[in-house]
Amino acid sequence: MGHTVTIRLTKELAIWLEQVAKRSGMPRGRIIREQLEKARESGGEQAFMRLAGSVRGARDLSARKGFARS
C-alpha cells in the first residue's frame, strides 16, 4: 500500500466505524478499503438501477382491467 488519503467523517460515521472495528477486530483502514472495493465492484451505481427501464406494462396500474377507479 503506497497511497494515503485523509478524510473527514461526521461524528455519527466515526462512531459507527469505531464500533464496527471493535466488533470485528479489524482495523478501521481495512474496513474502509473493503467498502471502497465493494463500491468499485458495483461500478459506482446503485444495484437496483440496473433494472431501470426493464419493466413493461401500463404506466398507471389503475388503468389495468379490474383495477379501474370508480
Structural features, described:
0% of the residues are buried. It is built from 2 helices and no strands. It is an all-alpha fold. It has helices spanning 11-24, 28-41. The model has no long low-confidence stretch (mean pLDDT 81).
In short:
With 70 residues, this protein is mainly α. The protein contains 2 helices and no strands.
Tell me, briefly, the overall form. elongated
For the sheet with most strands, the description reads:
none
How many DSSP E strands? 0
Structural class: mainly alpha
Distance between the termini: 66 Å
Q: What is the percentage of strand-forming residues?
A: under 5%
Radius of gyration: 22 Å
Helix content: 40-55%
Elements, N to C (H/E): HH
Total helical segments: 2
Q: Low-confidence spans: pLDDT under 50, at least 5 residues?
A: none
Average of the residue pLDDT scores: 81
Secondary structure blueprint with pairings:
Blueprint (H helix, E strand, L loop, with lengths): L10 H14 L3 H14 L29
Task: Describe the structure using short key phrases.
40% helix; 2 helices; 70 residues; mainly alpha
